Amino acid sequence: MIRNSHAAPDTAVVADWRQSGACRAEDPEDFFPVGATPAAKALERHAKAICWTCPSLQPCGVWALETRQPFGIWGGMTEAERAKILRRRGIRLKTGSDTA
Ligand code: SF4
To answer: Which residues make up the binding site for [4Fe-4S] cluster (predicted)?
Structure first.
């Protein structure tokens, strides 16, 4: 998945929930904070606050987990939060070496 995929749906099904996404009018960069600086954490809180108002919160989060999205905030979850959920199921997030 490309970094600015909030604006680039892959399939009609994915596009359906993305078209209702509260992030459509937001800067995609806000959903990809880098690091743990106070500025990055503020951006993370901002993105999550948008997610919590989003009608697509559930399908977005499910999609992010099912596709093991390695970066960004999806469905109100950071990559670390998704990784924690997946680890409990013996699954890891995608890495740069994954081809699928
Ligand atoms: S849950 Fe968050 S990332 Fe997903 S579509 Fe809604 S606003 Fe965008």
So the answer is: 23, 51, 54, 60
